Amino acid sequence: MAQISPMFAIPTATAQMPDAEALNTELRALFIEREAQGPKYANPNPYTVRNPELFESHFDLFDWPETCVQRLAQFCMSELSQTVAQLSGLDVVAMRRMQIATDAWFHITRRGGFFGVHNHPMASWSGVYCVSPGQHDSSYPESGRLSFVNPNSLAGMYLDPANAQVRMPFGFSNYAFDLKAGQLVLFPSWVQHYVLPFQGEGERITVAFNCSFR
After folding, report:
1. CA triplet 135, 145, 85: central angle to 5 degrees?
2. What is the CATH number of the domain that holds 193?
3. Longest dimension (CA), the chain
4. Among 76, 136, 150, 184, whose Cα sits 20 to 30 Å from the Cα of 11?
5. Is there a domain that residue 165 lies in?
């Protein structure tokens, strides 16, 4: 029997912030307060398709001095560094020599808010941390889903019984996360992704960041 192995693969990593409830409560209160201050904290030049039900901050979030923000930044950078080291075979000494440039921001999404297909140029790794997933309507199970576009989608240009039912990771479907509070998702910045419309009560609040290394 022939041996099956992946020719190409895209790494993603997930981690859970321990005891996230108290931290997320502080982050939510801070972000709601900053959103209310409008232009002072809003991204003035958004380039990805979205609608007014989604608020996006400036990209300097991890420079804020608040303890809750710095705790989150430390968690995200630690998990990312461990992921990069594991994938690349770099030791502790090599990782300590790395300088990481980071952009970070938050999104507050209310009913109907969405974020269009995009990726993150000029970065190698990106991440999304969930402060609050909101309360999704039961009739919309896909509400607020963080979805990644399969770069092999063109491989589905012709389907027949020999390839239409191929299972992941070899299939042609997209991949998605229904984020939970305190969950961190890390992924290569080049991967196209989007957020489906949030259909629910309250707010869907996330923190996103991009990193480049030297």
Report:
1. 115
2. 2.60.120.620
3. 64
4. 136
5. no
pTM for the full predicted model:
0.94
Q: Is residue 112 part of a domain?
A: yes
Task: Starting at the earlier edge strand, list the strands of the sheet with 204-213.
Answer: 13-16, 183-188, 125-132, 204-213, 100-109, 54-56
**Residue 193 is part of which domain span?**
15-38+47-151+172-213
Residue 30 contacts by C-beta under 8 Å, 6 or more apart in sequence? Answer: 66, 68, 69
Q: Which residue is it, tokens 């502790």?
A: 92
Sequence-ordered list of residues with C-beta below 8 angstroms from that of 190, at least 6 positions apart, any chain: 119, 120
For residue range 76-90, what is the model confidence (pLDDT) as tens digits? 999 999 999 999 999
Where does the pLDDT of residue 169 fall: very low under 50, low under 70, confident under 90, or very high at 90 and above?
A: confident
Considering the domain boundaries, does residue 202 fall inside one? yes
Rounded Cα–Cα distance for residues 187 and 124 (Å): 9
Which amino acid would we find at residue 101?
A: A
